[in-house]
Design a protein that fits this description.
The complex is a heterodimer. By secondary structure, chain A is mainly β. Chain A contains no helices and eleven strands. Chain B starts with a strand and ends with a strand. The chains are: A mainly beta, B mainly beta.
Chain lengths: 107, 120
């Protein structure tokens, strides 16, 4: 199975900050990398698919980049509603696997 | 509007069985592959099972293989997960989501989830 490792596991930031979350795959996954946002008690929501494509309806302050084994999710200017947990997920091979999550908290 | 509504969760004893359902609306269910993904309390996301649009291809996570069975009824726009020989470690919120196919290999959207608790 492909292992997905996110860093950091948790992060404190302020409204207006620029934030970057990293996801590393245990082998090359080309651009088969997706990002999700999950708020407490809610289902995950797709933010970015295919490493860098913004899902419809997602604010443009979210962006994704990377290919191969190293990927990043960037939030250009944090808004109060962005404080949540973020997960990366590879869809290169079965089983699809998720990173352990990055919890983004208010500083 | 796309809607996915999971049901069938509850409290069950170790070794017991439970059948989850996912009712889909707002899209052409029969054209989409479907998945179950679970999340143990306070933990991350774990993919559980996949079924293709025609039910011809099915995959399971090693952790549930031989105990869980995924199925679908396209006439009823419904997805199912039969869970047998349940263990404490199967305790989780179970979500259904379309995706992991050649046309869209991500999971989107997700249902609200149904909680399964395995405990004596």
């Amino acid at each position: 199975d492909i292992q997905m490792t996110q860093s950091p596991s948790s992060l404190s930031a302020s409204v207006g900050d620029r934030v970057t979350i990293t996801c590393r795959a245990s082998q090359s996954i080309s651009s088969y990398l997706n990002w999700y946002q999950q708020k407490p008690g809610k289902a995950p929501k797709l933010l970015i698919y295919a490493a860098s494509s913004l899902q419809s309806g997602v604010p443009s302050r979210f962006s994704g980049s990377g290919s191969g084994t190293d990927f990043t999710l960037t939030i250009s200017s944090l808004q109060p509603e962005d404080f949540a947990t973020y997960y990366c997920q590879q869809s290169y091979s079965t089983p699809p696997t998720f990173g352990q999550g990055t919890r983004l908290e208010i500083k | 509007e796309v809607q996915l509504v999971e049901s069938g969760g509850g409290l069950v004893q170790p070794g017991g069985s439970l059948r989850l359902s996912c009712a889909a609306s707002g899209f052409t269910f029969s054209s989409y592959s479907m998945n179950w993904v679970r999340q143990a309390p306070g933990k991350g996301l774990e993919w559980v099972s996949y079924i293709s649009s025609s039910s011809s291809t099915i995959y399971y996570a090693d952790s549930v293989k031989g105990r869980f069975t995924i199925s679908r009824d396209n006439a009823k726009n419904s997805l199912y997960l039969q869970m047998n020989s349940l263990r404490a470690e199967d305790t989780a919120v179970y979500y259904c989501a379309p995706g992991y196919s050649s046309s869209s290999d991500w999971f989107d959207p997700w249902g609200q989830g149904t909680l399964v608790t395995v405990s004596s």
